[in-house]
Design brief:
Distance between the termini: 52 Å
Oligomer: single chain
Number of helices: 12
Mean pLDDT: 90
Shape: elongated
Structural class: alpha/beta
Helix content: 40-55%
CATH architecture of the largest domain: 3-Layer(aba) Sandwich
CATH superfamily of the largest domain: Response regulator
Largest sheet: 7 strands, mixed
CATH topology of the largest domain: Rossmann fold
Strand content: 15-25%
Radius of gyration: 21 Å
Length: about 325
Amino acid sequence: MTISRRKFAFAMLASLGLMSSIWASPVFAEDAPKVALIMKSLANEFFQSMEEGAKAHQKENAAKYTLVTNGIKDETDTAAQIKIIEQMVAQKVNAIVIAPADSKALVPAIKAAVDKGVLVVNIDNQLDQAALKDKGLVVPFVGPDNRAGAKLVGDYVAKQLKEGDKVAIIEGVSTTFNAQQRTAGYKDAMDAAKIKVVGVQSGNWEIDGGNKVTSAFLRENPDLKAVLAGNDSMAIGAVAAIKAANKTGQVLVGGYDNISAVKPLLADGSLLATADQFGSKQAVFGIEVALKAIAGKQTQNDMQAQVKTDVVLVTKDSK
């Protein structure tokens, strides 16, 4: 392709609006299975590390498979993620490893991909089991127990509080299973410690969302003692809101994901705890499940239903 033709092709993609909402990065291995990794927002450090981990794995196994990585700009843009699935099917990938933006809305597109012979593995955010059952579909989930991970953080925060204290929960995108499970884990911990949850509000996984929700909680509850965020991005926003309200040290914060951006906050105590679910390895685990299925000539329903991965508590004192 000449330079002028490349420019024309790029311009055509931009005019269709694809370049504004989708990142795509291919890594080629000739005559090998092609695996597509479809993530949520690559503006989120967690998914950046996931992509980096997958690319490093492919580089080490260059003769075994081709990798194409994709991500949407907005974690709530399910339409863009559906479009990516359709594009990957059109490109005749052998397998799709996906962190779905919505636990239910992506199921029909995944069913369409499976019907065309593409193997699908689910990572990070688990697809809705009832929706899968309705489609007669089995999609293996490779990932941690989000509820248990959030409870680890919640239990640690609760040890710094007393019975009857007030806490608030910032949830991720409320239609996602992992957001719901993390909220449930936080509630489990607070119930066990007899600490009052004054409210649950979505921050849409974003720093700005976490900031706005926390500011509102602080206005409505001047005696709030802690904020439990469904991911570290929202926790960063919560820390900023608490600082703006001159309540640093008075209102504790818990997060989830252990992204590098929160290390200074853990060090100075602005963030009390987070959970590490090893984002850089999650995609790799999913890819390996897909490659094993391809090598074994398995159909979608032949694959193992669930592969649990680790999640651990991270605090200032963690080694």
